[in-house]
Design a protein that fits this description.
The protein is an all-alpha fold. The protein has one domain. The protein is about 70% helix and about 0% strand. Helix 1 packs antiparallel against helix 2. The longest helix is centred in the C-terminal third of the chain and has 24 residues. The model has no long low-confidence stretch (mean pLDDT about 90).
Protein backbone atom coordinates (compact mmCIF):
# COMPACT_ATOMS: atom_id res chain seq x y z
CA UNK A 1 0.00 0.00 0.00
CA UNK A 2 1.34 3.43 -0.96
CA UNK A 3 1.40 6.06 1.74
CA UNK A 4 0.58 9.64 0.85
CA UNK A 5 3.25 11.92 2.22
CA UNK A 6 2.34 14.99 4.20
CA UNK A 7 4.04 18.32 3.50
CA UNK A 8 6.22 17.75 6.58
CA UNK A 9 7.20 14.29 5.29
CA UNK A 10 8.14 15.79 1.92
CA UNK A 11 10.22 18.49 3.61
CA UNK A 12 11.97 15.84 5.70
CA UNK A 13 12.73 13.77 2.59
CA UNK A 14 14.16 16.77 0.72
CA UNK A 15 16.33 17.59 3.76
CA UNK A 16 17.48 13.95 3.92
CA UNK A 17 18.38 14.04 0.22
CA UNK A 18 20.32 17.27 0.77
CA UNK A 19 22.37 15.90 3.67
CA UNK A 20 22.97 12.42 2.22
CA UNK A 21 23.56 13.10 -1.47
CA UNK A 22 26.91 12.33 -3.01
CA UNK A 23 28.60 12.98 -6.33
CA UNK A 24 27.42 9.55 -7.48
CA UNK A 25 23.76 10.10 -6.53
CA UNK A 26 23.24 13.84 -7.06
CA UNK A 27 21.36 13.57 -10.35
CA UNK A 28 18.81 11.05 -9.09
CA UNK A 29 18.52 12.80 -5.71
CA UNK A 30 17.96 16.17 -7.39
CA UNK A 31 15.29 14.69 -9.68
CA UNK A 32 13.49 13.15 -6.70
CA UNK A 33 13.67 16.44 -4.78
CA UNK A 34 12.21 18.31 -7.78
CA UNK A 35 9.33 15.82 -7.96
CA UNK A 36 8.68 16.30 -4.25
CA UNK A 37 8.85 20.08 -4.64
CA UNK A 38 6.31 20.00 -7.47
CA UNK A 39 3.93 17.97 -5.32
CA UNK A 40 3.86 20.55 -2.52
CA UNK A 41 0.51 22.27 -2.29
CA UNK A 42 1.34 25.86 -1.41
CA UNK A 43 3.92 28.56 -1.96
CA UNK A 44 4.60 28.62 1.78
CA UNK A 45 5.52 24.92 1.73
CA UNK A 46 7.80 25.48 -1.27
CA UNK A 47 9.51 28.38 0.52
CA UNK A 48 10.32 26.06 3.44
CA UNK A 49 12.39 23.80 1.18
CA UNK A 50 13.91 26.48 -1.05
CA UNK A 51 17.26 26.56 0.77
CA UNK A 52 17.68 22.79 0.40
CA UNK A 53 16.71 22.89 -3.28
CA UNK A 54 19.21 25.71 -3.86
CA UNK A 55 21.88 23.66 -2.10
CA UNK A 56 21.15 20.55 -4.16
CA UNK A 57 21.23 22.59 -7.37
CA UNK A 58 24.55 24.15 -6.36
CA UNK A 59 26.09 20.77 -5.54
CA UNK A 60 24.90 19.35 -8.85
CA UNK A 61 26.38 22.31 -10.70
CA UNK A 62 29.69 22.21 -8.82
CA UNK A 63 30.13 18.48 -9.22
CA UNK A 64 29.22 18.58 -12.92
CA UNK A 65 31.80 21.33 -13.49
CA UNK A 66 34.56 19.54 -11.63
CA UNK A 67 33.96 16.24 -13.38
CA UNK A 68 36.72 15.52 -15.87
CA UNK A 69 35.56 16.13 -19.41
CA UNK A 70 35.60 13.10 -21.69
CA UNK A 71 37.71 13.66 -24.72
CA UNK A 72 36.07 13.04 -28.04
CA UNK A 73 37.70 10.42 -30.19
CA UNK A 74 38.39 11.74 -33.63
CA UNK A 75 38.41 9.26 -36.47
CA UNK A 76 40.89 10.41 -39.07
Amino acid sequence: MLKMLSADDKLAEIKRLYYQTSRATINQDFAKAVDLLKSLGSEEERERVAVYMDGLAQMRSDWARSRPQKQKNSKR
